[in-house]
Design brief:
By secondary structure, the chain is of the alpha+beta class. The chain has one domain (9-67). The protein is 31% helix and 23% strand. It is built from one helix and three strands; from the N terminus they run βββα. Strands 1-2-3 form a three-stranded antiparallel beta sheet, covered by helices on one side. The longest helix has 23 residues, at 45-67.
Length: 74
């Protein structure tokens, strides 16, 4: 059976894009694993905030899956 290696990650906001990045934090593994973009709705801060929060939730779930591979069924 194939092993599921644990990979430590964290979620950071992109400096150049409207997106959350899931980044590896292990030594030698500082690279982007996933990007979760969100749409900025001009003139509607409420929708933009909701989109940003939803994207953060998705990024946090992706990060959790990488940090807890023994709990993910596939």
């Amino acid at each position: 059976m194939r092993q599921k290696p644990k990979q430590n990650t964290e979620v950071k906001h992109s400096q150049s894009k409207n997106a959350w990045n899931v980044v590896g934090t292990d030594l030698g593994g500082k690279y982007k694993i996933a990007r979760v973009p969100y749409e900025v709705v001009e003139g509607n801060d409420i929708l933009t905030t909701q989109n940003k929060a939803e994207a953060l939730e998705h990024a946090m779930f992706i990060s959790w899956c990488f940090c807890n591979p023994d709990k993910v069924q596939y």
